[in-house]
Fold these 2 entries.
Entry 1:
Amino acid sequence: MAMHFEIEDVFVAEQNLKAKAEVAEDYDHLANKLQRSNVDIENLTIKAQALTVAIPSWGVGTGGTRFARFPMAGEPRDVYEKLQDCATVFKLVRSTPAVSLHIPWDKPEDSAALRRFARERGLHFDAMNSNTFQDQPDQELSYKFGSLTHPDAAVRRQAVEHNIECIEIGKVLGSKALTVWIADGGNFPGQLHPRRALERYLESVHVIYKALPDGWRVFLEHKLYEPAFYSTVINDWGTSYYCARELGPKALCLVDLGHHAPNVNIEMIVARLIQFGKLAGFHFNDSKYGDDDLDAGSIKPFQLFLVFNELVDAELCSVPFFDPAYMLDQSHNVTDPLESLMMSAVELTRAYVQAHLVDRQALTEAQEKCDPLRALAILKQAFTTDVSPILAMARERSGGAIDPLAVYRASGYRQKKAQERPSVHQVSAGIV
Ligand code: LRH
Ligand code: MN
């Protein structure tokens, strides 16, 4: 196999030297500030080092819209090059040891070899993602009018078999979960019979559920609309929750932050799913309007903080069955995907650490005493605390980059990949 450029650990260490003294000074300053409210900065740094989020394999290539995709030089051309790029993100931010694959976009010829390739780079595989929202060249029956809920039982069977194939591939890769998002829905009133469609969904997913190996979970992903623009079968958390309850304990509800109507209170949905013991985890991203798949924390950082506030509250209360899977699901249309993934991973750890800064005893007191402004002030105190020194220290202590973006750009990784990977423009990174 031809030599592939990788950013060396020694290069990262050299680059860190430039920022080490500054980070140490800022860290000590923050330590003193937090000490005044009896918060030990070291606990927070350990928490920051512990948080992990999975990278979507389809997120390392440039994404696009129905209008256009603007390919970038040095894009990954196959799943191995996608893993090289995931390993580069992991090397610099240290919080992304897992990769979530999409089948058939990433269908490996040799799953065992792919698992070895990943492990050699410190990576493992998170949830598998099935795809019954596109027709593949060799596919017998079309998903144009649906998949797991299609009126034709043969189409439903084909979709069920595809999901079971994803499980089989995942077993060899060491994955422990399958995410099922279906585009099934209608563009016209009357096109679908809502109750029959949901019955067919449950019937189909029940077969997939029975095929889950021990220790596996199935994540049901709801979405309000798109590509169906009038009705979507699994359109909201309530429908997803009902189905997860009907299916059994291995079925849980995955929250993609972009899959809700504007201004929906997503942190409330998270609190509900935690309380009902049905929170699968997340596809983190951000949005202004629809399922924009923008970088996490780039548009509504306070909402991201409030979501993590619910997650940390559950973690500290040791809520039963609380074991959410964190993944990014973004489309990088105008940035270098690796830069966006690194920055998004950093923003998730930031929200997590800030949520651990919330004085929960004081918050409970304010809530029980019906003191709304005091309660908000306590949350804002945490949200407005600049925890960057903790995040940088955590990365540095985990062998990563104090400033991932600066190190990535200084390494010339993208330019070197452009030489290694002559672009074959027709290859799409996934969605487009
Ligand atoms: C659907 C979705 C789903 C993935 C796809 C790439 O919008 O969020 O999670 O399968 O994006
Ligand atoms: Mn998603």
Entry 2:
Amino acid sequence: MAEPAPAEAAPWTATVLTLFPEMFPGPLGHSLGGKALADGLWALGTVDIRAYARDRHRTVDDTPYGGGAGMVMRPDVVSDAIAAHHAPDSGRRLLYLSPRGRRLGQPLVRELAAGPGVTLVCGRYEGLDQRAIDAWSERGGLEEVSIGDVVLSGGEPAALVLLDAVVRLLPGVTGKTESLDNDSFEDGLLEYPHYTRPRDWDGRPVPDVLISGHHARVAQWRREQAEAITRARRPDLWAAYAESEG
Ligand code: ADE
């Protein structure tokens, strides 16, 4: 895929450094995000890390010092790829997807959406040589980000998750901004349940209050539902919410 347009005209831009550029845009080429990509509301560039290999075998990884299973991505190769595609003064955040990173959540997603874009580094195998992580943390503000306490086979699916979450918040991507305000986590609660036609399905009626036409009662019911679901399923969120509500 081609690199995105020059900075002055650039929309929110993601540059993904990966050994598998063909995985992108993948699911991001569909639905809301895909239409927004086609419409130029955001831009995506991929960089094949292998292009920065130094030998004729195009080696990007090697066995770990100290022994053990798996392969480690070489710091020289990955660092050259980052240096060629990430300008530390661009204002774009440099993120390395890793299960050891700061946990991705809606606050970080909102921060990223408010900025000019991101450079994402995807690791494979056992991950990246620690020296490349250290060097770019010092030099370019690299941050490690995890999408949750699961181990994926590489950073690419995590990058897709992160980008999906950010892109839907970009101006013009999601139709009604009201639907964003109601999202789970936006007010510290999980979202209330939704219903549509038919009004009776399989012996299960839609709750009466939703048919009442009383906006205030609907809003109150939805808040109660959101609170009950959050309390039952996510004691951690509930504790933080209860504290913030005083
Ligand atoms: N790479 C492998 N597992 C990951 C995770 N949970 N989050 C981000 N990147 C990863």
